[in-house]
Amino acid sequence: xxxxxxxxxxxxxxxxxxxxxxxxSEHEEYRRDKPLSMSIGxxxxxxxGSSILKQICGRETALTLxxxxxxxxxxxxxxxxxxxxxxxxxxxxxxxKRYRALFALDIVIALVLMVLGWKSAxxxxxxxxxxxxxxxxxxxxxxxxxxxxxxxxxxxxxxMLRHPMLTGxxxxxxxxxxxxxxxxxxxxxxxxxxxxxxxxxxxxRRDKGWVKPAAVPFSxxxxxxxxxxxxxxxxxxxxxxxxxxxxxxxx
Length: 251
What we know:
With 251 residues, this protein is mainly alpha-helical. It has helices spanning 7-12, 26-32, 38-45, 49-56, 59-82, 84-94, 96-120, 135-150, 157-160, 164-179, 183-207, 218-242.
């Protein structure tokens, strides 16, 4: 059992020392939500109904919604690489446009379930996050932004990493797990991180050999890094407004 030995120690904890309970005040939830993804935050702003759900649903119901959302997201994205033959038959049967529409609908449903489950779940600590408020987490988040951008831009990063997008997702999830130690974070970020790792393995197995793209001037990589850093700075600037907590490391 952790006991406070002074105000300085309490400020360094992601939740008040000695208050490991499932019921939290709004102020305590505000202090705990660090750091979260911008996409989850934007969706949560557009979905005020989650506050009503929080009043009528218990913690177990909220976590169930979160788990279903993560599983649905993972299943939809893993389906093409785990069952390519079944996917091909399905596209042949219903058509590519309907398949893409169904795919998009499932993704939207998964996102809605994850947002509702996240915002409605009570904050129940599981472990003390080792890098809460650390600049290492900020660095990992910046790296994930660079990898996300590299997956969709010409550059040499794709010559070093076969799956820059999924690698970025794994880094993103790992950063959040190092800074958050509650049940809902473990489910959301742990689940998405596990999906990213499994997806890299299944896609590599399906596609067999890897043909590296042609080399490009290093200036292309510098442009990607600069654009990623600019977007990351914007996210940092808006994070506290959208999410409710500043993601900057504590001093």
